[in-house]
Design brief:
With about 100 residues, the chain is of the alpha/beta class. It has helices at about 5-15, 25-30, 40-45, 70-80, 90-100, and strands at about 1-5, 20-25, 40, 60-65, 85-90. The protein has a single domain, classed as 3-Layer(aba) Sandwich (Oxidized Rhodanese, domain 1), CATH 3.40.250.
C-alpha cells in the first residue's frame, strides 16, 4: 500500500484530474463533509461487499476516512482482493481541514 498526501490529492483535484476516491467512513460522517468519490464503509470492505468498486481494480484508488486509520485498513483489504494501485490519504479529513 502506498500513501498520498492531502496536498497532492488537492493539487490533482484542482487540476481536474479524475480520481477514484473511496470514502470508507460511516454515512453520518460523510453527510457532514466529504470530498467526493464512492461511499463504501470500512465494514462493507471488510465483508467484501465491494461491487461498486470492482471496475477500479486496475485504477489508482485513493481511500480516505476521518484520520487515515480506517482507510489504511481498507486499502490493505482491497489489495488482498486484487486491487493493483491502492493509496491511503494520509491524515484523512482531519488533515484535509487543516490544509485549507
Amino acid at each position: 500500500m502506498q500513501h498520498i498526501s492531502v496536498e497532492e490529492a488537492k493539487k490533482r483535484l484542482a487540476n481536474n484530474e479524475a480520481l477514484c476516491l473511496v470514502d470508507v467512513r460511516e454515512l453520518h460522517e460523510r453527510e457532514v463533509f466529504n470530498i467526493g468519490g464512492i461511499h463504501c464503509s470500512i465494514g462493507k470492505i471488510q465483508t467484501m461487499q465491494i461491487e461498486a468498486l470492482e471496475d477500479w481494480k486496475e485504477e489508482e484508488v485513493i481511500c480516505y476516512c476521518r484520520s487515515g486509520h480506517r482507510s489504511m485498513m481498507a486499502a490493505m483489504v482491497l489489495e488482498t482482493l486484487g486491487f493493483k494501485n491502492v493509496k491511503n490519504l494520509t491524515g484523512g479529513m482531519l488533515a484535509w481541514g487543516e490544509n485549507v
